[in-house]
Amino acid sequence: MSDQNEITVRVVRSKRKTIGLHITKDGNAEVRAPYYATKGEIESFIRENTEWIRKHAAQARERAQIAEQTPKLSQTELNHLVRVARKVFAERVAYYAPLLGVSYNKITVRKQRTRWGSCTKDGNLSFNALLVLAPPEVLDSVVVHELCHRLEMNHSPRFYAQIDRVFPDYKKWDKWLKKNGDALLNRLPSDQ
Q1: At what angle do helices 50-69 and 39-48 cross, to 10 degrees?
Q2: CA 137 → CA 4, 177, 183, 192, distances in Å?
Q3: N or C: which end of the chain has fewer CB within 10 A?
């Protein structure tokens, strides 16, 4: 598929069972198909999803353009942000852990491009330093989310019930992060 916006569609075959679609960060499409899918089936799938591809490719290209124009943090600023983040995350985790009735081990602050936080089964917590640039409620929502994994290592209704118990505005701030998270991630220097 190619139109005036030059959308390239790449087909990737694997052991998967269904045909799926993914838009890359540069605004092109990747069709993921089972080995046994015929060329005709794949072409039909692309035709049926042409409008979806155009819409999401345009959005991806707009995000990429914004990312290019976003001022990047210097290495000095980023190092300062990490130091501040270590202190802030330690305080927020220490505040919310007793409210949830959970313990935790090590807290790590990272400069990541794809994740906001994580929690291991051993209770090691990791957070993205860029969250310090977000509203405090966003940072708290990620802290609570990761601490709730100490109770439920999944994203089941029980997991979200635990979040709601101590942070009822979670959905509002999670939505904020989904909407504005790329702008934060774009602040990372290219060499990170």
Answers
A1: 70
A2: 42, 10, 17, 26
A3: C
DSSP H/E element including 61: helix 50-69
| Contact assessment for residue 176 and residue 65, using Cβ atoms and an 8 Å cutoff | no
Whether residue 173 contacts residue 138, with contact meaning beta carbons closer than 8 Å, is answered with yes
pTM of the model: 0.72
How many residues does this entry show for the chain? 192
| Backbone phi and psi for residue 171, each to the nearest 5 degrees, phi listed first | -60, -40
Domain ranges of the chain: 9-69, 75-185
Alpha helices by DSSP H, 70-169: 75-100, 136-148, 157-166
Question: What digits encode the pLDDT tens for the residues 25-78?
Answer: 888 899 999 999 999 999 999 999 999 999 988 888 887 777 677 788 889 999
Structure tokens at 176: 């904020």
Contact 29, 45 (CB under 8 A): no
